[in-house]
Amino acid sequence: AMEKSYMSVFLLLVALSCALAKEPPKKETKAPKETKETKPKLPQTLSRGWGDHLIWTQTYEEALFRSKTSNKPVMIIHHLDDCPHSQALKKAFAENKEVQKLAEQFVLLNLVYETTDKNLSPDGQYVPRILFIDPTLTVRADITGRYSNRLYAYEPSDIPL
Fold first, then answer.
1. Domain ranges (residues) in the chain
2. What's the N-to-C CA distance of the chain in angstroms?
């Protein structure tokens, strides 16, 4: 009897996950003209608003693997959704065409949580913080911003840097 109830629960979970995984049918309707008020809220993507057309990795491990296999350096952006400094940098980063073009040369990862790798917080866990890792998987602590008290902090005015 116990085995039967486990099987029932298992089948229920499988059915539920299948139902939730199905995409809703696409409607072939023309979208209304978008204004600031009617613009729909887009679902959260891995870009988190830093550049939706760019390819972002989901985890630190995935970023390291892609770096090694593609021979591209990693750019890791630590930020928080409710931090005004992070929001300002995100806006400047996403709206700057040169930065977006340059970002294509990197394996990209943006994190709203800290990793367990202490190499990613060489001078503390503050946001926004941008670190680079070369394809040999070496954290490039020598690539810094202009602040001596927060070496890896960047502000919107630092975009040219």
1. 60-140
2. 68
